[in-house]
Amino acid sequence: MTSLSALTLPDHTQLPDSNGTFVKNWQEHPQSILLTDSITLVLEELHPDSQYCIGQDLGIYWRLTDPPEKGTEAPDWFYVSNVPPTLEGKTRRSYVLWKEYVAPLIVLEFVSGDGSEERDQTPPSQGEGGNVGKFWVYEQAIRVPYYGIYEVAKAQVEVYHLVDNTYELMQPNERGHYLIAPIGLELGIWQGFYQNAELPWLRWWDTQGNLLLTGEERAVIERQKRERIVEKLRSLSAEQLNALGIDPEMLD
Q: 3-state DSSP call for residue 232?
């Protein structure tokens, strides 16, 4: 008789956390940081209990295979709601669906080649050597509600929404953005300077069209506001400053 322990499926501590390949695109790291940094305040409001997880190049195990790496996909960026950020005090080495049960709300892939890998719909019955198309996995196996394919070389992003178990290509709104309704944010392309590079970056906006800023961007704006206030105060006389309870030496 087979014991229950023998039937226990492996968790994130027992599965490989890398397939040994190199990052294909130098921009992947700063792009992931940009997405995470700018959305953090919103997610903290949505999850006051801190029950959410963001993965950056983290493997999602969706089936058990030999070798285990054949049963995983590693999106460049993904977000899962209503799961703990750590497991038993440990950071996740991977995201294991048969242990977590909750699928990511959105996965994002940053295209390095011609985009065929990100749009591959090959099912398991047709894949060679156990390979399965990335698009098929997100749509049919993991069932991710929103799937984004970002191509910096084309300055564009495609976003698919899962409707009746099938991905439908979303149409952008008047701002060229895609609404991710469950979190009340829009996803789109922003041409600008970040991490020492002028590029069409993938970024978040609120539903009023306001760009979600990184911590550094917010700090710059606050510093500029303070500088403008100081300049206005410097235009006042010593008597006016004293009336406001401000020591003129504080402005130096």
A: helix
Residue 39: what are its φ and ψ, rounded to 5°?
Answer: -95, -10
- Give dist(CA 44, CA 192) in Å, integer: 26
Amino acid at 199: L
Nearest partner of 149 among 234, 77, 61, judged by Cα: 77
33-68 pLDDT, tens digit each: 999 999 999 999 999 999 999 999 999 999 998 888
Strand blocks (E) in the chain: 52-55, 60-61, 72-73, 77-81, 95-96, 106-110, 146-151, 156-163, 166-169, 178-180, 185-194, 197-206
Q: In DSSP terms, which residues pair with 151 in a beta bridge?
A: 156
- Look-up of token digits 């206005």: 232
Single pTM value for the model: 0.85
Q: What share of the chain is helix, strand, coil (3-state, %, to 5)?
A: 30, 25, 45
